UniProtKB/TrEMBL annotation:
Keywords: Membrane, Transmembrane, Transmembrane helix. The chain crosses the membrane at residues 12-35, 47-67, 140-165, 216-235, 247-268, 329-352, 364-385. It comes from Algoriphagus namhaensis. This is Voltage-gated chloride channel family protein. Pfam families: Voltage_CLC. It is found in: Membrane. Its main location: membrane. It comes from the Bacteria.
Length: 411
């Protein structure tokens, strides 16, 4: 490229990055404000959990009647990034926003990353209607939307940018993608946190042990457990999705039945610790020993919620699963409890999404540089240990080194 072409490219994509960043960051801010309201209202009025089947009906019918392709969620974005076919409908933004808020208001167990990524991607793709974009440019627009949504909902711009680039498991990261993706992530984070004044939860690793070979070796069994946990999370989500699809043919009824069963479990157990995001429990995992089964309960309830057709993301429940599993492993592994919770938080996330670099950077942004090597080691090993699994069914795993293969079906 000539200097003139470079200058024109930089100006054009800087403008796109600012626009997409402002749109996705503002969407995330509005979403987080509504999500906080829904969470606070549910906690102050626990009786509303009994109406979860009604919330499921609202979500199920609206997606069945108006959702069209939007029902595929994050997998639709991956499909369009891999092989562009049709525009992503703008309706995806309000539908996933309202669907996730309703899920959390009435007590479903879900996250927020999926919502932010879908809003960012659908808003970004609308630029294709107004500008003369080539296929490669549209692909980059979608990547920028994913980066903006992820970065702004968690307050981690570096992780957001790398997540968008790494998410596709494409080893060929084109240099032209770097500037727009990172610029969008930082603008989106700024728009959410500074322009809208929406903050993010702080997690603290209070003690980092010496960087010795023995301590690093102890990370290995923990990270393998995190990888298997990520694999279990992905398998469980796909399992319940398939069960609901096979057993209940009419989609709007699936979240109604799922909501009824979840409400019954909450009523029988008299326990709401695993509903919603579960952020208070994640914070506790860094500070004090918790019941060993917390990670398992959150995995099952989130997989059931999403499999039934409720809306939301998986990443914050993965944080919950990883932090509480690390907390439980502190009984057997002689590393500080807060460190195990921290490397578990990013490790399970890495295993379930196959994004070890993004998860390592997220750990650095959340916890600081001191624990960096422990975080990187956990993410890399968990990524390898998770094998042929992903919470995203459309994710192409052909370029991933697989050491734990699924057995072929008999016969």
């Amino acid at each position: 490229m000539t200097p003139k072409e470079i200058l024109r490219y930089t100006g054009r994509w800087s403008g796109f990055a600012v626009l997409i960043g402002l749109l996705s960051g503002s969407a995330s801010a509005i979403f987080l404000i509504l999500l906080e309201w829904a969470t606070n209202y549910r906690e102050a009025n626990p009786w509303i959990i009994a109406l979860l089947p009604l919330g499921g009906l609202l979500i199920g019918y609206s997606y069945h009647r108006f959702g069209s392709k939007a029902v595929k969620g994050n997998n639709l974005l991956l499909d369009e990034i891999y092989q562009q076919k049709e525009p992503i409908p703008l309706r995806m933004t309000p539908m996933v926003l309202l669907g996730t808020v309703i899920t959390h208001l009435f007590g479903g167990s879900a996250g927020r990353e999926g919502t932010a990524v879908q809003m960012g991607g659908s808003l970004a793709d609308q630029l294709d209607k107004w500008f003369d974009l080539s296929q490669s440019e549209r692909r980059l627009i979608l990547i920028c939307g994913v980066a903006g949504g992820f970065a702004s909902v968690f307050g981690t711009p570096l992780a957001g940018a790398f997540f968008a680039l790494e998410w596709m498991l494409d080893r060929k990261v084109r240099w032209k993608s770097v500037l727009p993706t990172f610029a969008t992530a930082f603008v989106a984070d700024w728009a959410c946190e500074w322009a809208w004044g929406v903050g993010h939860t702080a997690y603290v690793i209070s003690e980092v042990p010496p960087h010795t070979l023995v301590n690093f070796l102890w990370v290995i069994p923990a990270a393998i457990a995190f990888g298997f946990s990520g694999r279990l999370f992905a398998w469980s989500t796909h399992f319940f999705t398939k069960i609901f699809s096979n057993v209940i043919s009419y989609p709007p009824i699936r979240p109604v039945i799922g909501g009824l069963l979840i409400a019954m479990v909450v009523w029988i157990s008299d326990n709401t610790d695993y509903l919603g995001l579960g952020v208070p429990r994640i914070v506790e995992a860094f500070e004090t020993p918790l019941p060993w089964y917390d990670w398992l309960a959150k995995t099952g309830l989130t997989a059931f919620t999403l499999g039934a057709g409720f809306k939301g993301g998986e990443v914050t429940p993965l944080f919950f699963t990883g932090a509480t599993l690390g907390n439980a492993l502190a009984v057997w592994i002689p590393l500080p409890l807060s460190l195990l919770a921290g490397i578990g938080l990013v490790g399970v996330f890495s295993g379930a999404t196959n994004t070890p670099v993004a998860c390592t950077l997220m750990g650095l942004e959340l916890f600081g540089l001191e624990a960096g090597f422990f975080l990187a080691l956990s993410c890399a090993i968990a990524y390898l240990a998770s094998g042929e699994s992903s919470i995203y069914s459309a994710q192409d795993l052909s370029s991933k080194p697989i050491f734990f293969k699924r057995k072929p079906p008999l016969g």
